[in-house]
Amino acid sequence: MAIKLKINGQEQPVDAAPGTPLLWVLRDHLKMTGTKFGCGVAQCGACTVHIDGTPTRSCVLPHDSLEGAEITTIEGIEGRAAEAIREVWIEDNVPQCGYCQSGQIMAATALIAENANPSDAEIDAAMTNLCRCATYMSIRRAIKKAASKV
């Protein structure tokens, strides 16, 4: 049975099996491949999207539980916080392999949208996404720099 999901401000009809994780609806059904598969158990954060403004792991979230929710992906993230994060990520060459970066950017954007001056402890608490290249110090510096621009 098809449902409608509001993704990046647009209604999207989705006809996927009940319980299909949002990640696979985004990637396989809607061809929005910016959100990545990492672990499949909501631990790594590569699949992070915003659900009603909150960073959420999409790999275990049933799509059919989201009717009426505002879903934002890396393709649709906007606003001053998102612009600052993208700018600094590029300026400071934050990613190495880049695989986790869409999830990192989604988490970082949500953090500085809520907290324009996060401490190291607040960044550490908010940034639970894993990075196999261990760019955590670069990510922290970039978040502080981006926050100063918001």
Number of DSSP strands?
Answer: 5
Catalogue the unreliable spans.
Answer: none
How much of the residues is beta strand, in percent?
Answer: 5-15%
Residue share in helix = 25-40%
- Oligomeric assembly: single chain
Assign the structural class, choosing from mainly alpha, mainly beta, alpha/beta, alpha+beta, or little secondary structure: alpha+beta
Please tell me how large the radius of gyration is. 15 Å
- The CATH superfamily of the largest domain is known as Beta-grasp domain
What is the distance, rounded to the nearest whole angstrom, between the alpha carbons of the first and last residues?
Answer: 42 Å
* Number of structural domains: 2
The CATH architecture category of the largest domain equals: Roll
Task: Describe the protein in words.
This protein is 37% helix and 14% strand. The protein folds into two domains: 3-72, Beta-grasp domain (Ubiquitin-like (UB roll)), CATH 3.10.20; 80-149, DNA polymerase, domain 1. Strand 3 (48-51) and strand 4 (54-57) form a beta hairpin. The chain contains five helices and five strands. A five-stranded mixed β-sheet has the order 2-1-5-3-4, sandwiched between helices. The chain is α+β, with helices and mostly antiparallel strands and 150 residues long. The longest helix is centred in the last third of the chain and has 14 residues, at 101-114. Helix 2 (80-91) packs across helix 3 and helix 3 packs across helix 5 (136-149).
